[in-house]
Design goal:
With about 425 residues, the chain is α+β, with helices and mostly antiparallel strands. The chain has helices spanning about 5-15, 80-95, 130-140, 155-170, 185-190, 195-200, 235-240, 250-265, 285-290, 305-325, 335-355, 355-385, 410-420, and strands at about 40-45, 45-50, 75-80, 115-125, 145-150, 170-180, 205, 215-220, 225, 240-245, 265-270, 275-280, 405.
Length: about 425
């Protein structure tokens, strides 16, 4: 749940520097759709964490109501890659004000190596699609297995095609997503895309806990991804995201073991003759039977997550409607609900515009007025800054040189690594 204003006032009074990313503004009517979705902590150039975990009571669950903690995954980093996490923070900090002083951002050369795990920090930014291209490439090069976990899966056509191509090539493609979710609309959109994946040989599992929020991938027992990016259009091209790509057999094996453990608490989705249905995942029939009741919803969802859900949902609906109008692909029965809702919505708008035109014209007029004022205001602002350096130019936070870090496995390992790197 979102923190109260008194919480932020107390933080500021205690000396914490705070910046609100991309708040709603009159000169940017739909700018709030772009979000800072990164979840990271970087400390003194020594240690960093990249994860899907938010600072929220939701992740703790609610024992009094029988709601278990949320399931999430993160990684702890030591070594030169910590500098890249600091740089990613500096990049997003600068978008909302003055840049951090250069001496507060460590460089990789100044941080000693701390292990033999090669990784790369991928700092995704809007309209760059860096993680999207990476995920497509990994799907193309996978030869044995591609196991994905995602919290808000809404398959875009190019990525779905990449998964289907991998499955046709004999790759064991699995997708683990939540059953209970804080965004019911995303659950409906995810399920509407099950059929083509299942028909193409992709195995789909729904986790039976309170909420599965992890965003991970493990490929061929060698390559892993952990971070904040979901497999939907909002994360691919709309948000600032932060992920870690790891090329290490040991880490990948740990990821595979975690994945298999999660499947023990999941229900596999299979095709019957006429519909998609649930069956217990192999070896976990008892768990599936206990978890079929609907989980209670937990509080309200913050405005930013609703915005991304709306954006992802709009893309999904647009894809289905476009396919129905142009016949460029075969639609499955699961997509009939989206078409029905879209058709009824258009009929309702037609009736409203015919019978009560002013009711329809008023909100459209208000929005276009707001948009016109915003664009005019922005234009005058740009003309006033003519000749000034480009606003928003950022240094490349992703050098191509591989970085070496260690991913500690226990508290003892963490203490040992810190002692070894201490001057």
């Amino acid at each position: 749940r979102g923190a109260s204003r008194s919480f932020w006032r107390e933080m500021a009074a205690g000396g914490v520097q705070l910046r609100c990313f991309n708040p709603p503004r009159l000169d940017s009517p739909v700018g709030w759709i772009t979000r800072d979705h990164r979840k990271t902590v970087a400390v003194d150039g020594r240690i960093a964490f990249v994860t899907g975990l938010c600072i929220s009571r939701r992740w703790k669950g609610d024992p009094a109501r029988g709601v278990a903690p949320w399931r999430d995954t993160g990684v702890e980093i030591c070594g030169p890659a910590v500098a890249e996490v600091h740089a990613a923070f500096g990049q997003i900090w600068e978008t909302m004000g003055d840049a951090l002083p250069a001496d507060e951002l460590p460089t990789g050369d100044a941080i000693a190596g701390a292990g033999d795990v090669a990784l790369r920090v991928v700092a995704g930014a809007p309209a760059t699609a860096g993680m999207f291209r990476t995920d497509q490439l990994i799907a193309a090069v996978a030869r044995e297995s591609l196991w994905l976990t995602d919290a808000y899966f809404v398959g875009v056509t190019p990525y779905v095609q990449a998964l289907l191509a991998a499955s046709r090539d004999g790759v064991d493609v699995r997708l683990l997503i939540p059953n209970a979710t804080d965004l019911p609309v995303i659950r409906a959109l995810s399920r509407s895309g099950y059929r083509p994946l299942l028909e193409g040989g992709v195995r789909i599992f729904e986790w039976n806990g309170s909420m599965l929020h992890a965003k991970t991938a493990v490929v061929d027992g060698r390559w892993s991804r952990i971070g904040s990016s979901n497999l939907n259009i909002a994360s691919f091209i709309g948000n600032y995201e932060l992920d870690v790509a790891i090329d290490h057999v040991g880490v990948a094996r740990e990821m595979q073991q975690m994945y298999l453990h999660d499947l023990e608490q999941a229900t596999e989705i299979v095709l019957s003759r006429n519909r998609v249905r649930n069956v217990a995942a192999p070896g976990v029939e008892g768990v599936a039977g206990e978890r079929k009741r609907r989980r209670p919803r937990e509080g309200r969802t913050e405005r930013g997550r609703k915005g991304s859900a709306a954006a992802a949902g709009a893309i999904r609906v647009a894809n289905v409607v476009s396919a129905a109008m142009t016949n460029h692909r075969v639609l499955g029965p699961a997509e009939g609900g989206l078409l029905l809702a879209s058709g009824l919505g258009l009929l309702a708008i037609t009736v409203l515009g015919t019978v009560w035109p002013r009711v329809l014209a008023l909100p459209i007029g208000v929005f276009t007025l707001w948009l016109g004022i915003a664009l005019t205001w922005r234009a005058f602002g740009l003309r006033a800054r003519r000749g000034a350096p480009a606003v928003g130019a950022k240094p490349d936070a992703n050098p191509v040189v591989p970085l070496t870090v260690v991913v500690p496995k226990s508290d003892a390992d963490v203490r040992s690594d810190r002692d070894e790197t201490r001057p």
